[in-house]
Amino acid sequence: MYALEINGLGKVYEKGNRALNDVSLRVPQGSFFALLGPNGAGKSTMINILADIVRPSEGRVTLLGHDLFSERNWCKRRMGVVPQEIAFDPFFTPHEVLRFTAGLFGCRPDEAWLDELLERLELTRHAGKKARQLSGGMRRRLLVAQALVHRPELVILDEPTAGVDVELRRRLWDFMRELNAGGTTILLTTHYLDEAEELCDHVAIIDRGQLLTAQPMRTLMREIASSWLWLNYGRPVTLTDEDQVALAGFEPRGSEEGVCLKLGQSQDGQSTFHQAYQAAVARFGPPMDAGVRREDLEDVFLRLTGHGSQAQGSGVKS
Ligand SMILES: Nc1ncnc2c1ncn2[C@@H]1O[C@H](COP(=O)(O)OP(=O)(O)OP(=O)(O)O)[C@@H](O)[C@H]1O
To answer: Which residue's CA is the nearest one to ligand 1's atom 7?
Structure first.
């Protein structure tokens, strides 16, 4: 069973701006699913469609087998969405926000659960303050608590950790991991690709409204991530045509400090580490230092999209 099945989803905003183009995606029930993409890729549009904030131009979505658009109420009760935009009454206290939200879902507030949410999201100390007196990070955590009030089976988080410090982020993820271990499906967008790689067991990457890949994280990292042998010569190396020919099988790259060679597997399934190392030594002599680096999710993301996960920062790694 899939928590979400998205088929041919498309969105054209006014003035013909196409934000999503024929996206089809399956989110397995119980998965911790990362929806990744650079700025403007269409992530929030997709989440806002799921949250009933944006109307799709085309496509079909089912939640646990139920049609999202024709069975909205059934679906809303099973889904908790943490939006990017903060939107609650500034004069309510966190506790009042949660009680009010429970009412919106038509459930009697479960006081023990509300207290637990405030505790886990480190808002207990601030439970008496008005929402407008909370810091940006606290309001963001209150949004997470709000999405969990009715114990949804699917939790959707749009950039939940933006503006949340490292320590709190870690504790928030521990809580999400616990919910996930208890069977809750979690779909999240984030620009923190290291966190996505560590937390998520499935990943989809979209860019300019198109789905580039969607698979289990392990499969993506096994099939797309490669290993590189770097050789440090303590000087910049510019590859000549002869170097390119001699090292052709290793996709050689010169760098400020030496050379990088892509590793693969020989016919007998062994790593090509020795061949690559020897080929480099034959061209440039023994290096001062050498090592192997496996690409991480950010490298794969950069390769697939051609740019970083956010406009600023997250630049090309060396
Ligand atoms: N209300 C809107 N009206 C018109 N165009 C919009 C609207 N909302 C988003 N867009 C456009 O749709 C495209 C996708 O935007 P979206 O916010 O979904 O991307 P995103 O992947 O969430 O980006 P980010 O990581 O920056 O939040 C962008 O070109 C954006 O300018």
So the answer is: 13
